[in-house]
Predict the 3D structure of the following.
Amino acid sequence: MFYRETGQFKTSYAEDMALFPVIQDRIGIGVILIVAFVAIPLLANDFFIASIMIPFLIFALATVGLNILTGYCGQLSLGTGAFMGVGAYACYKLTTIFPEVNIIVMVLLSGFFAAGIGVVFGLPSLRIKGFYLAVATLAAQFFLEWCFIRIRWLYNYNDSGAIETVDHTAFGLVLAGPSAEPLTRYFIVLVIVIAMTWVASNLLRGRFGRQWMMIRDMDIAAELIGVRPLQAKLLAFAVSSFYCGVAGAMMVFFWLGAAEPAAFNINLSFQILFMVILGGLGSIAGCFMGAAFIWILPLIIRTAPLLFGVEISAALVEHIAFMVTGALIIFILIVEPHGLARIWQIIRQKLRVWPFPY
Amino acid sequence: MSVAEVLEKPAAEVPAAKPEKRKILLSVEHVSLSFGGVKAIQDISFDIEKGEIRAIIGPNGAGKTSMLNVINGFYHPQQGKITFEGKNRDKMRPYIAASQGIARTFQNVALFKGMTTLDNIMSGRTLKMRSSFFWHLFHAGAARSEELKNREFVEHIIDFLEIEHIRKTPVGRLAYGLQKRVELGRALAMEPELLLLDEPMAGMNLEEKEDMSRFILDVRQEFGTTIALIEHDMGVVMDLSDRVVVLDYGKKIADGVPEEVQKNQDVIDAYLGVPH
């Protein structure tokens, strides 16, 4: 009833091609932005911002990256964690070589290193598809993880084998490092994630996004129409790895503050892949839903017993959180294999015609 | 003449694309293609004139689809020569054939199932779009104006094929007949010189066949596109096509105007079988 586009006539193709052609959607996105920029900073405590919102946004960005590759271009990848690691290590090396450059610039620059590595490991995609490609990207995962451990130059020969951030200041503020305020880091991450999500949706509605979807849906027909498969696929690998690289760099510099090679292992790749699948392949909004579901839901489950005053051991809470999340994932995938984004679409369709069934 | 100009003219003014003079658009000479021991095509020669509707017929497994795949560069024949628009072509990738102006549809619809009708037809404009990656990052400048310009072109095709109502529907959900129509639209969006239609009417009912026939004739009439079509419905073939080439077991058994081909004893034998 409230969600109905009746009477909203579009008089030009430009209006029809807008990102949010329906007024209600524009209002909705405005509300979300106000919550993110005003309400959360005002109301939330440091724990909520530093341990829930920042990682959620970072994971959402990595999910957007993987979704470009897997959801839009149809190339299954298990190397996400490693590509995030490439971004993190590249940013670490860049900041030690050029300590005076703004950390935000460095985080974005390190994405290009990840993109380069992504292109190299994307080369097999011309010949192999589906599960076989997933195995090939698994090679990237293990090889790069090995590099993070064995190439001592990457972590400046320190004894711990981990990378750590020192304080980075700019504009009179500590932007990253141990003494950076969570709120500052939150705003940086938020702006980067929103800007890069906007860029991703721009790319996806233009000719490049269409080429990726053509490859995904029917690669033979795409080639007969004039898409060059190698170029299109490598571009998808590059863009996807760029996003993952930036997410990885932000993970170390704006969230954890330090990371060992194990932080970028196969578990991270799977975590991001689950976020993509659960959120919905081929949907940008789904990326955020998937990331929220997998990252925030366990936290809520963990804190729920405390809210109701139930005393149970921390270990038990942890196990219950795993089990409930796992069960919910299975439940959602049975009910709607296309993920949360499709569920949202169905709800929207129902809202359009409410109170009538169709 | 652009589609827009043609569409805006009243029907009477549209010049009928009569082939005044025989001009060969594509010629296939002594082409042979085999997969291991299987000889899919053996020493076939024929040509397609500019502006004509050329049918390729034959029983199942005669090598018709293989022939189309050879023409648009998907298979590379072991022997023979193919000349398109006066230029000899050697081994080529399909996207080069596309850039030279060869478009096709498929026997089993090969649409992009996850995309809408609009996006599917827009995808046919791939080679017409050149705007840089940079502008696409912001959906501004050249990228935006190019998208708009091509959207307008695509809307003309949508009007032409009478599929306005399914513009925003993902094609996976469309009925089979409509999918075939969208696929024709996608090929038309490429503004091809030569349009290859692989069984455009397979699995359609009479009404859908009549619609499709009308569209094929209109395409030739209005855009001057040369059409090569494979079809099993003999009524359609004999009515639509200017010339027919008949294949059987990878060999050419007849070539000529429909009336001749219908009377050809080899063709009758191929379709009805001969006692051994």
Notes: Chain A has one domain: 47-353. The domain at 47-353 of chain A is CATH 1.10.3470 (ABC transporter involved in vitamin B12 uptake, BtuC).
